Amino acid sequence: MTIPFEKFKARLLANPKVKAEYDALAPEFEIAAELLRARLRAGLSQAELAARMRTSQSTIARLESGQTLPSTKTLLRDAEAIVQWRATTDEDGHCCFAVAL
User: Which CATH topology does 5-99 take?
Assistant: First the structure.
């Protein structure tokens, strides 16, 4: 006999320890969801974004699924590829951002 996923999930989350661990993962999955939303807003496929980031489509899929937590460097590359901006430094060595209009 099989049970629907939502019923199974509810049964598991009734355990306070499981619920605490599940809730602790929420920020990681929110990052993945936002990466996906940003790519879709930009009208890019995973393959197009991967090409712009100089990575593979499977890497993008892993990031968007939440299987892999991106590094800060990866997040910056993702943003540069989607928004067409880049991090740079001014004449004093301070970090600043340039946006291509």
Answer: 434 Repressor (Amino-terminal Domain) (1.10.260)
Which tokens in the block code for residue 80?
């540069």
Where do the domains of the chain lie? 5-99
CB distance 57 to 50 below 8 Å? yes
Instruction: Provide φ and ψ at 86, rounded to 5°.
Output: -145, 150
Question: Phi and psi for 96 in degrees, rounded to 5?
Answer: -145, 175
For residue range 19-30, list pLDDT tens digits in order.
999 999 888 888
The model's pTM is: 0.66
Contact 42, 80 (CB under 8 A): no
The whole-chain average pLDDT of the chain stands at 85
